[in-house]
Amino acid sequence: MRMLLEDIIADFRDRPLPSLTPREARLPALKGKIDTVIGMRRSGKTWFLYQRMQALLDQGIAKDRLLYINFDDERLLPMRRDELSAIPEVYYRLYPHNRSQTCYFFCDEIQNVDGWESFLCRLLDSEDMQLAVTGSSARLLSREIATSLRGRALATEIFPFSFREALRFQGVALTDQPPGGQQRALLANRLRDYLLQGGFPEVQGIEAPYRHAILQEYVDVVILRDVVERHGVANITALRYLIRHLLGAPATLFSINRFHNDLKSQGIACGKNSLHEYLAYLIDAFLIDLVPIHSRSLRQQQVNPRKAYVIDTGLALAFCHQAQIDRGRLLENLVFNALRRQGQTITYFRGAEGYEVDFHAIAGDGTVQLIQVCESLRDPRTRARELHALTAALRECGLPRGCIVTLDDSEQIQQDGLTIDVVPAWRWLVAQ
Q: Whose CA, among 127, 263, 325, 415, lies 20 to 30 Å from 79?
């Protein structure tokens, strides 16, 4: 094992870091804390670690003070917990001068090794190190991390590319200056591509049939490794039916009771408690998220259906028939993901008269915004409906201003002392 580790350490030292698209997330890198990078599989967690490594090199830190180990490397499998201690031993034997200065260890998929938690905590206590680790299971590296790492970790979630990041990947430069007509047309066109293609790095620019096959494979891996194997799910038929339902109908209300009845009508046996568990597993795997109704009453949030959103619109499209594509729903899902990236507290708003606004979002500084999403306001009936819902909600919430995100429309509406900003999606997303 020690000879193998020497080879892995030397390989990393001699191998140049790959070129990458910078992500907008940042690691806290606080002394005495372990940075944990979490997110759905294939969303770019490893490359985000490379970004942090490159930033350290740009600061003038010698590369031999950095170490990256991928615990998915088949040469290390199966690795025992008693073999983990060989990693710092071999490293410091190769670079003894680094004991007197801070070193940076990056551990990819370290949860593959039993006992990884105590190893990292011991390393943090005994050496001058900053540690960063990745993991694909949300339950392993998020909900259980407080106990696994005894409160010594800070989590950073990595999503598929945002619209800004996708533009950067494509070489489209954004400036602080208002875009001219040609640039606006380009951004509007790229927004439509992004809406259908999504943000997973691997599928950028790939033709639709191949893209859909790759994204469907992502889901198969999540089902197998993050749900079935980890949680011992036996009723795979019901689980797959649930996933296809959620991914094929993004930004729609979801009720366990209704879905349970749907399963029964299809002749698929599955208890409601099991469905609740499956739903939690899919949230833990970052595949979907659920948004409750806006209410101060926890009971009201529990008894009302929640809205289901998918981690990526391209992933949702991979499970939709072309005839079922609803660009308005995809656009709403896109806006949700942008708000979630910002860490906002998100609910949907239903007023006293039954009208609905897609998002009631509260930022970290307490700022509240109401956002309605609509593909287009060109139809007079749609325009009247959307404006009525948003203005009524603004009055109920005591807010002077709201926003409607559309594909192309752009205007500012003054109505009864309220201001409604109608914004094309590309402009709204670039500003986030």
A: 127
